[in-house]
DNA sequence: TGCCAGGCCCTCTTTAGGGCCTT
C-alpha cells in the first residue's frame, strides 16, 4: 500500500437514488499499484428488502442470493476498512459517491479521501470515442474483460484497466514522467474544451 | 395522491431543454 495506491470501486444497487431509499446490494473493488491490480474486494449484501425484477435481470443478482448474503452494514463496515484513506475511482463517480456516502452515514462513518471519475476523465482523454459508457470504452480500447457486465467486481476490474490505460496513453501522448491521481482528478474538473491546452501546460517542464 | 436522481455537456444557451451515464 504505497503512496501511489488507488482503489477502483463499483456498486450494484437496488435503483438509482439513495435519497429515494435505494441501497447497495453488491460491492466490487480493485486496488491498483505499480500499473496493475494487486488486490480485490467483492461482497454481496442483503439490503433488507426485495429488489425489483428489473434489478434481478439487469445484474443477475436474485432475491434468493441476497437473502443468503450478510447484512449490508456488515459488508460495508468491512469495505470501509478495505478502502481506508486510499484515493477512490469509479465510472460515473457521482453515482457511486452518493451510495458510498449514504451507506457510510448509516454506519456513522464518513469518507475522508478524494474520489475521481473515470467517465469524466475518459471524455477528455478520448473525446472522439463512440461512447463513454464503461462497455463502450472497454470495446473501443479493447481492454481486458471476461465478458461479464453489471456485476460489481467485473465492472471494477474493467474500470481499473481503463484507468491504467488512460494513464499510459497520457504518459505517451504528453511525454509525462508520471500521471498521479491528483492530475487526473484536476483534469476531470477542467472544461472539456480547455482540456487539451491544460494537458499541454501540465506536460511543460 | 402522485410525483420524486443528479451531474455533466452541448446547443437553436444563461429567462432552457435534452442526451449521456450510473442501477
Explain this structure to me?
With 205 residues, the chain is an alpha/beta fold. The protein has one domain (6-203): Ribonuclease H-like superfamily/Ribonuclease H (Nucleotidyltransferase, domain 5, 2-Layer Sandwich). It is built from nine helices and five strands. Strands 3-2-1-4-5 form a five-stranded mixed β-sheet, with helices on both faces. A hairpin with a 2-residue loop joins strand 2 and strand 3 (36-44). Helix 5 packs parallel to helix 7. The longest helix has 23 residues, at 152-174. The protein is globular, with a radius of gyration of 17 Å. It binds one DNA strand of 23 nucleotides through strand 1, helix 1, helix 4 and helix 5.
Offer a quick outline of the entry.
The model has no long low-confidence stretch (mean pLDDT 96).
Amino acid at each position: 500500500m504505497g503512496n501511489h495506491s488507488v482503489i477502483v470501486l463499483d456498486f450494484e444497487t437496488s435503483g438509482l437514488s439513495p435519497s429515494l431509499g435505494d441501497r447497495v446490494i453488491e460491492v466490487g473493488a480493485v486496488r491498483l499499484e505499480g500499473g496493475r491490480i494487486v488486490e480485490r474486494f467483492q461482497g454481496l449484501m442483503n439490503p433488507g428488502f426485495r429488489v425489483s425484477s428489473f434489478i434481478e435481470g439487469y445484474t443477475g443478482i436474485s432475491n434468493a442470493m441476497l437473502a443468503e448474503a450478510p447484512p449490508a452494514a456488515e459488508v460495508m463496515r468491512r469495505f470501509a476498512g478495505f478502502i481506508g484513506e486510499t484515493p477512490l475511482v469509479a465510472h460515473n463517480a457521482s453515482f457511486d459517491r452518493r451510495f458510498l456516502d449514504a451507506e457510510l452515514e448509516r454506519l456513522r462513518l464518513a469518507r475522508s479521501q478524494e474520489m475521481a471519475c473515470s467517465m469524466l476523465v475518459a471524455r477528455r482523454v478520448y473525446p472522439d470515442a463512440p461512447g463513454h459508457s464503461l462497455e463502450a470504452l472497454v470495446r473501443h480500447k479493447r481492454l481486458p474483460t471476461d465478458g461479464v457486465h453489471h456485476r460489481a467486481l467485473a465492472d471494477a476490474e474493467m474500470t481499473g484497466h481503463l484507468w491504467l490505460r488512460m494513464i499510459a496513453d497520457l504518459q505517451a501522448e504528453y511525454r509525462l514522467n508520471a500521471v498521479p491521481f491528483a492530475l487526473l482528478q484536476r483534469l476531470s474538473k477542467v472544461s472539456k474544451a480547455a482540456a487539451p491546452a491544460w494537458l499541454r501546460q501540465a506536460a511543460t517542464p
